[in-house]
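Per reviewer request, we include the raw input and output of the structure prediction for the construct analysed in the revised manuscript.
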Amino acid sequence: MDVSKGFTFTEVNSVRASANKVVCCHFSSDGKFLAIGGHDKKVVLCYTDALKLKTTLEEHSSMITDVRFSPSMPRLATSSFDKTVRVWDADNFGFSLRTFMGHSASLMSLDFHPNKDDLLCSCDGDGEIRY
């Protein structure tokens, strides 16, 4: 069985998003934006078509561990080793709309529910999942 059958992945573009390690990236559901996060504590948002910088989000106090766009709303969620999840308005990235705290260890990952606009989950290094 040829597992590559039907896939035509090709590199379209590349960009150096940071001088530090990049650990996560995610496309917006409409494909217009790419969010990039990593060790520099920033989330970089680029226009997908030319990978030009749109804005930089800088409210986390430690490295970014995950970035996720909502599949159904103009929202971006970010997680960090600072033990917080921040939710941003993807139409106006001026500042985070909400900060979720409660994890006792550094966050590792997060995701939005595919059908429920107001539900996201996050997991930390101690094995706890919160939603």
